[in-house]
């Protein structure tokens, strides 16, 4: 079923424009043990758009992002970033990992977390200058965390931490932003702050890819969707691809039909 969908609806909007795609993945297969976590996945991200990666728990969403970043090594597959091999393009990608895994017992100030976003530019021994600190403060301002720069990161709420990690990504001044469930477990004010920042990135021509768990906000937040359940299910615009059919294919029995109807009605 999913294979059929992939061949009917899974074609990326512009296969011919592959060299211009901010992120093009071909034949990606990743295994942790015996079973593949991601199997033979192709993905072509459209430039200047916001794309949601959606699919059930354990579908391989985070794994796909990590492979796109070179954090995990695939069994097979290629990743191209702006038409070039990933290795040459890492500085153009900013990543906000899924929250919670990091233990902040070691005292680290908010401003220092944001400054980590500059290490590629600075190098290990580069001198931090006032202009770097000013830029970090500017990024904190954009996420509404300007007043927290001297606080310890471990003392902030989950939503506040998430905004700081977004500020770190902004400090990188990347062209492609990959975020893994940035809205999971955050307060409403943080969700609003984050979506506004992402929309302003899009407005300035940046490309944003978000692993997203809340199907209800997909039509409001995103231009494109990529549905996955170990294999790719479908990829395309929200209007054409966020449908009852593709959602059933990705989630199977895990979504009630009424719920699917409601969600896709919202997508128009
Ligand atoms: P998602 O982000 O869609 O919830 P993941 O990419 O995290 O899914 O995981 C995909 C599959 O790979 C799941 O079955 C998960 O249990 C497994 N998996 C993920 N990370 C690891 C790991 N480090 N070691 C072993 N299995 C893993
Ligand atoms: Mg995940």
From TrEMBL:
GO MF annotations in UniProt: ATP binding
Keywords on record: ATP-binding, Ion transport, Nucleotide-binding, Transport, Zinc, Zinc transport
Name of a matching Pfam family: ABC_tran
Gene3D superfamilies: P-loop containing nucleotide triphosphate hydrolases
Entry-linked InterPro entries: AAA+_ATPase, ABC_transporter-like_ATP-bd, ABC_transporter-like_CS, Metal_Ion_Import_ABC, P-loop_NTPase
SUPFAM superfamilies hit by this protein: P-loop containing nucleoside triphosphate hydrolases
Family according to the record: Belongs to the ABC transporter superfamily.
Full protein name: Metal ABC transporter ATP-binding protein
Higher taxonomy: Bacteria, Pseudomonadati, Pseudomonadota, Alphaproteobacteria, Rhodobacterales
């Amino acid at each position: 079923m999913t294979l059929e969908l992939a061949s009917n609806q899974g074609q990326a909007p512009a296969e011919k424009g592959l060299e211009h795609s901010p992120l093009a993945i071909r034949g990606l297969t990743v295994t942790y043990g015996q079973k593949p976590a991601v199997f033979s996945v192709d993905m072509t991200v459209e430039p200047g758009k916001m794309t949601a990666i959606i699919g059930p728990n354990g579908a391989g969403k985070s794994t796909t992002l990590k492979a796109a970043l070179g954090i995990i090594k695939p069994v097979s597959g290629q990743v191209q970033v702006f038409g070039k091999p990933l290795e040459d393009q890492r500085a153009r990608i900013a990543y906000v990992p899924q929250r919670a895994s990091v233990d902040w017992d070691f005292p680290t100030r908010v401003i220092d977390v944001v400054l980590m976003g500059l290490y590629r530019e600075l190098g290990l021994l580069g001198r931090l200058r006032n202009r770097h600190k000013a830029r970090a403060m500017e990024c904190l301002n954009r996420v509404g965390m300007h007043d927290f720069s001297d606080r310890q990161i471990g003392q902030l709420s989950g939503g506040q931490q998430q905004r700081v990690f977004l500020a770190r990504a902004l400090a990188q001044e990347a062209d492609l932003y990959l975020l893994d469930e940035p809205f999971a477990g955050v307060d409403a004010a943080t969700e609003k702050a984050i979506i506004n920042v992402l929309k302003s990135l899009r407005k300035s021509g940046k490309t944003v890819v978000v692993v997203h768990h809340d199907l209800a906000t997909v039509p409001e937040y995103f231009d494109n969707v990529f549905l996955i359940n170990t294999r790719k299910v479908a990829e395309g615009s929200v209007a054409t691809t966020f449908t009852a059919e593709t959602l059933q294919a990705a989630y199977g029995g895990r979504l009630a039909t009424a719920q699917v109807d409601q969600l896709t009605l919202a997508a128009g």
